[in-house]
């Protein structure tokens, strides 16, 4: 799971628990200006193929955590339960999307949208 906070002009995505080990990342800081969209569409996440794993862990049907190459783009995944997942679209960043499980997807999506002005 990922804890999302707003610190000044940045969104901080803190990977929690053992997911740090599985994802090989513990924290991502993204300027709010680089966030182009936030979705809380769990059905879309459940249909996605993760792509080719570059760094991290992928156990099909159980969880995905780490960096994946999907349709020519880098995507960061940390998902156990697709029903609790948000999709954050980015511009001018290493990753094109962050697909992460959060405690309350509707509240976190609203918090991020409000912070980026959308």
Give the topology.
Blueprint: E1 2-7, E2 10-15, H1 19-23, E3 27-31, E4 35-39, H2 42-47, E5 52-59, E6 63-70, E7 73-79, E8 85-90, E9 97-101, H3 105-116
Parallel strand pairs: 7-9
Antiparallel strand pairs: 1-2, 2-3, 4-8, 5-6, 6-7, 8-9
Short account of what is shown:
The protein is α+β, with helices and mostly antiparallel strands and 118 residues long. The protein has helices at residues 19-23, 42-47, 105-116; strands spanning 2-7, 10-15, 27-31, 35-39, 52-59, 63-70, 73-79, 85-90, 97-101. The two termini are 24 Å apart.
Give an overview in words.
By secondary structure, the chain is α+β, with helices and mostly antiparallel strands. It has one domain (2-116). The chain contains three helices and nine strands, in the order ββαββαβββββα. It has helices at residues 19-23, 42-47, 105-116, and strands spanning 2-7, 10-15, 27-31, 35-39, 52-59, 63-70, 73-79, 85-90, 97-101. The strands form two sheets. A six-stranded mixed β-sheet has the order 4-8-9-7-6-5. A three-stranded antiparallel β-sheet has the order 1-2-3. A hairpin with a 2-residue loop joins strand 1 (2-7) and strand 2. The radius of gyration is 13 Å and the shape is globular. It starts with a strand and ends with a helix. The model has no long low-confidence stretch (mean pLDDT 88).
